[in-house]
Amino acid sequence: MPLLLIAGVLVWAPGAQAQSFSICHGYGCYFRTQVTLTPADQSRIAALMAGGRKSAEAERTAIRRAVQIFELRSTQVIGVADRPRMEFGKAREKGQMDCVDESTNTDHFLRYLQAFRLLRFHTVADRDARGSFFDGRYPHFTAVLRDRSDTSWAVDSWYEPAGGKPDVMYLSKWKERGFNSQR
After folding, report:
1. What is the DSSP string of 93-162?
2. Which of 49, 131, 137, 171 fits a 20 to 30 Å CA distance from 116?
3. Residue 103 in domain
4. What does the H/E/C string look like for 123-141?
5. Domain enclosing residue 68, as ranges
6. Per-residue pLDDT tens digits for 140-158
7. Is residue 5 one of the residues assigned to a domain?
8. CB–CB of 150/128 below 8 Å?
């Protein structure tokens, strides 16, 4: 991690070094493709996140936009744009992502934001799920943030094509949904 010593304080130097991720796709992380955020990507994301430092709500808005940038960069490298949602029978198709792929990738990206101290009002929690077939819903996974009041937030990018804004909502509300294709 690139750090600079300024006035006796270590700080992250955004964009000083490329950052790589192993991106899941093909459903259930069947494929993994290395995607690197360039220094320019990182600077853009850091500037975007800086705009969200006024409040927890502003930070969640910035996170939605940062996830879009991350997903667009990923599809550029993979070479295939993910379609919204999951299509049954399309497993093992390069570039297509189910909720396992989407939530894993989003979780890794949120942990990157956290590691580089780009999150001020939230921490990354473990991914979560809803649905179990028995309750009439297909199992569905999401990345999760927790704010300072210990409220959990779902960050779910599955419903939009790659580069679409993810849903960011109370995890408790997210868990109530999912019947009849409800977001």
Report:
1. -TT---HHHHHHHHHHHHHHHHHTT--SSEEEEEEEEE--STTSS--EEEEEEEETTS-EEEEE-TTS-T
2. 171
3. yes
4. EEEEEEEECCCCCCCCCEE
5. 15-181
6. 999 999 999 999 999 999 9
7. no
8. no
